[in-house]
């Protein structure tokens, strides 16, 4: 179906989309936001499963969740004015370092 790393990155971006979509769905009370969230979540899971055909499960899952965590943390700051602190930025940096390490492993 394609390069597993490309699929994994797209799956991770979709994970960011559905996680942010959960916020916009307002507890699944907004039908359009809820529908978009569910579709993007399904796409994310399908792409993750395809990526796992060529990437070890532990690596694929860790990278997928890392991309999601990184993206949601960043967008939380940008879209929802979540607190920016040195410890939060350090945590984001550690996530990035972990993703890079897993890609190199």
Descriptive labels:
4 helices, mainly alpha, 105 residues
Topology (SSEs and partners):
Layout: H1 4-25, H2 31-51, H3 57-80, H4 86-104
Helix pairs in contact: 1-2, 1-3, 3-4
Descriptive notes:
This protein is 82% helix and 0% strand. It has helices at residues 4-25, 31-51, 57-80, 86-104. By secondary structure, the protein is mostly helical. The protein has one domain. The protein is flat and about 40 Å long. The relative contact order is 0.16.
Outline of the structure:
The chain is mostly helical and 105 residues long. The protein is built from 4 helices and no strands.
Q: What value does the average pLDDT take? A: 94
How many discrete structural domains?
1
* Head-to-tail CA distance between termini: 23 Å
Report the principal-axis shape: flat
Strand content: under 5%
Instruction: Return residue spans where pLDDT drops below 50 for at least 5 consecutive residues.
Output: none
Q: What is the CA-based Rg, rounded?
A: 15 Å
Q: Which structural class should the secondary elements be placed in?
A: mainly alpha
Q: What is the number of helical segments per DSSP (H or I, 4+ residues)? A: 4
Q: How would a textbook summarize the main sheet? A: none
**Total count of strands:** 0
């Amino acid at each position: 179906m394609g390069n597993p790393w490309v699929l994994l990155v797209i799956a991770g971006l979709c994970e960011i989309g559905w996680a942010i979509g959960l916020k916009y769905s307002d507890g699944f009370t907004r039908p359009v936001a809820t529908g978009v969230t569910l579709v993007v979540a399904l796409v994310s899971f399908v792409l993750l499963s395809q990526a796992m055909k060529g990437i070890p499960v532990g690596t694929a899952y860790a990278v997928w969740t890392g991309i999601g965590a990184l993206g949601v943390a960043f967008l939380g700051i940008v879209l929802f004015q979540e607190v920016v602190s040195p410890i939060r930025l350090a945590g984001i940096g550690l996530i990035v370092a972990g993703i890079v390490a897993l890609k190199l492993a």
